[in-house]
Specification:
The chain is mainly beta. The protein is built from 1 helix and 7 strands; from the N terminus they run αβββββββ.
């Protein structure tokens, strides 16, 4: 089986629908820095009060709703992202600027516990 080549294809292995409503285009970018993950999501025209973020068991849920009263249209957005490393949930930050939501998810330093097993 060939390896996936698209930037978001590694999420597909988790069998999580990455967009429930919308056109199916890639409207996010995710990359890993030395100390954490950075996720940017394009949400033009959305009021920051209409964006919801929730962290639950290694999965980041993003929801947003935008109502265009002139066109009498309502757009609902929902994505779920699962991360392959332990994230420090209490230190996740988010900022919404000029239609772009940026979420920083710091990687939690994991201390190894247990006992060392000698190799003979």
């Amino acid at each position: 089986m060939p390896l996936p080549t698209t930037p978001d294809s590694w999420f597909e292995q988790f069998d999580i629908p990455n967009q429930l409503f919308g056109a199916g285009r890639s409207d996010y970018e995710l990359y890993e820095e030395e100390d954490g993950f950075v996720l940017t999501v394009e949400l033009p025209g959305v009021d920051p009060d209409d964006i919801s973020l929730a962290w639950d068991s290694g999965v980041l849920n993003i929801g947003a709703e935008n109502t265009d009263e002139e066109r009498e249209q309502r757009r609902t957005y929902h994505r779920r992202f699962q991360f392959p490393k332990q994230v420090a949930a209490d230190d996740i930050t988010a900022e919404y600027t000029n239609g772009v939501l940026e979420v920083f998810l710091p990687i939690e330093e994991v201390t190894v516990s247990g006992r060392e097993i000698p190799v003979q």
